[in-house]
Design goal:
The protein is mainly beta and 252 residues long. It has a domain at 23-91 and 110-173 and 218-244. It is built from one helix and 16 strands. The strands form two sheets. Strands 1, 3, 4, 7, 12, 13, 14 and 16 form an eight-stranded antiparallel sheet that branches. Strands 2, 5, 6, 8, 9, 10, 11 and 15 form an eight-stranded antiparallel sheet that branches. Strand 13 (191-197) and strand 14 (200-208) form a beta hairpin. It is globular and about 45 Å long.
């Protein structure tokens, strides 16, 4: 290559704007080979420690995520009964101003067979847990019908209105990203949720009252749910959990 042409290319590269760097507020980071497992950067891991190995187990999968980072598999044997914690928790979260937008994203892979008794479910994340319970933002993966009909949805606490992602097929990674639009005031009904699955907007909820009081409480991922699975074994994998104030267009 001619020296003048090479010098021009180097000058262009040096003057090109750098790619935006995203800095999540909180991130579950086990390391590609699991170097930071089991805590993975969280404040607390497995508050349900007494039930580990009995009604749930958790297994590291090195480089198991499509991102190249480690994944973690949760297993719930058919004999499980009751409910409790089995994931991670981040504490001392920064407060969120009313009217601000926050994002939660992660990858999840349900493992077949996805057939369990009616009523099984797990709260994959809770924003504001152990604070103002009415203002918690909860992402739930549960079975709605007998015989393997699953949904993932997000709502404020357990108020009954939610935004859903499409049916999560088994043995396939699904990239889930949620835009949480808090309302302009604690009483205004101009908040809502946008749910993205594999980079595509699949569901939207508008005209909702979404206060931020209590979001500085615990953020849980993993996390809490039903041990009992109606006589069937249930398994799923998770990876790449982040809590952010920026949308990641590449997350798919």
């Amino acid at each position: 290559m001619r020296p003048r042409l090479l010098a021009s290319l180097l000058l262009l590269a040096a003057s090109a704007p750098a790619a935006a760097q995203m800095t999540p507020i909180r991130k579950l980071d086990c390391g590609p080979a699991g170097e930071r497992y089991p805590a993975c950067g969280a404040t607390i891991e497995a508050r349900g420690e007494r039930t580990r190995g009995q009604v749930w187990t958790r297994t590291l999968i090195p480089k198991g995520s499509p991102s190249g980072d480690a994944a973690v598999q949760f297993d719930f044997p058919a004999k499980g009964d009751g409910e409790g914690y089995f994931g991670w928790a981040f504490q001392d979260m920064p407060p969120v101003s009313q009217g601000a937008v926050r994002y939660l994203r992660f990858r999840v892979k349900p493992l077949s067979p996805m057939k369990t008794g009616l009523g099984w479910g797990v709260k994959l994340f809770i924003l504001g847990d152990a604070a103002v319970s009415e203002n918690r933002i909860i992402g739930t993966w549960r079975q709605w019908c007998d015989g393997g009909c699953y949904k993932f949805h997000v709502d404020r606490n357990i108020n009954g209105w939610e935004a859903d992602v499409t049916e999560p097929s088994p043995d396939k990674w699904h990239a889930i990203q949620i835009r949480i639009r808090s309302s302009s005031t604690a009483a205004a009904s101009d908040g809502g949720f946008d749910l993205y699955q594999n980079g595509k907007l699949v569901s939207k909820q508008n005209n909702r009252v979404i206060p931020t009081a209590g979001w500085e409480g615990t953020l849980g991922f993993g996390y809490y749910g039903t041990y009992g699975s109606g006589g069937e074994h249930v398994s799923y994998q998770v990876a790449d959990f982040e809590y952010d104030d920026e949308f990641d267009e590449t997350f798919r």
